[in-house]
Write a structure and sequence with these properties.
By secondary structure, the chain is α/β, with parallel strands linked by helices. Helices cover 31% and strands 14% of the residues. Strands 1, 2, 3, 4, 5, 6 and 7 form a 7-stranded parallel β-sheet that branches. The N and C termini lie close together (12 Å).
């Protein structure tokens, strides 16, 4: 069984970045996805350059921070910030050409660092929304990138490289190897999503998801995690470049 342990939000802030790096160096984390429009981006890239074993993909943003492109009208509020996730939980309108150009700019910004992205996903899973999914898939095709399998049945998207199963709940890691084997018996490859971090002021002031991040960091670096997720138990920890 191949398992990717992926941390979202690399680049959000320095505290988030340090938490992700520690979860990789001292725990079972193998992969992360990077926000290119947040204050911790440059710091994240510097850390990634010194941590070559960590797979780094791109975490496309539509609901966090500010866009990279100026003069957008359908993606932003009156302050020029991306709208909150709540905006997309009801009937909404976006100019899909604006979204394409903005997300392409986010991908190009990552590529400009010289790093090779391992895969593509999105902040708050907005890539799975009806108007947004086609743009996400178009960009994944254009850049030949694997994608997160939060879209449903993998068989519907045979042209895209993705894992067999996507796990939303990082606390799954706390289960015994017997429970984990039983849970994933049908799958050859799995991604477990997580959000480890150290809590800094920026994260505290700007995110609605704060305290659970330090708990997830503790889970990922625990003896239980390291004693369970290993080759002796038939688990290969990989990142998206090894799919």
């Amino acid at each position: 069984m191949k398992i990717i342990i992926n941390a979202d939000d690399f680049g959000y802030s320095n505290g988030v970045n340090y938490g992700i790096i520690d979860a990789h160096k001292n725990g079972i984390l193998t992969s992360t996805t990077c926000l290119t429009n947040m204050p911790g981006f440059e710091h994240a890239i510097n850390l990634a350059n010194n941590t070559p074993e960590l797979g780094v993909g791109i975490h496309l943003s539509l609901t966090c921070g500010r866009p990279l492109i100026n003069n957008l009208y359908s993606l932003v509020d009156s302050n020029g910030d991306f709208r909150d996730l709540s905006h997309y939980e009801q009937k909404y309108y976006i100019d899909v050409d604006e979204l394409y150009e903005e997300w392409k700019a986010q991908i190009e910004k990552f590529l400009s660092t010289g790093l090779t992205p391992t895969h593509l996903d999105s902040h708050h899973h907005v890539n799975n929304l009806e108007l947004i999914k086609p743009i996400f898939l178009k960009l994944a095709s254009e850049y030949h990138l694997p994608i997160r399998n939060n879209l449903g049945d993998k068989k519907i998207f045979p042209q895209y490289k993705m894992v067999d199963y996507f796990e939303y709940h990082p606390e799954t890691i706390l289960n015994s190897i017997e429970v984990i084997n039983d849970k994933y018996i049908e799958y050859e490859s799995i991604e477990i999503m997580c959000h480890p971090a150290y809590i800094d002021k920026f994260l505290r002031d700007h995110s609605s998801f704060v305290m659970p991040r330090i708990e997830e960091l503790d889970i990922l670096t625990s003896d239980h995690a390291k004693n369970t997720f290993n080759e002796q138990n038939g688990i290969s920890l990989i990142n998206y470049s090894e799919l």
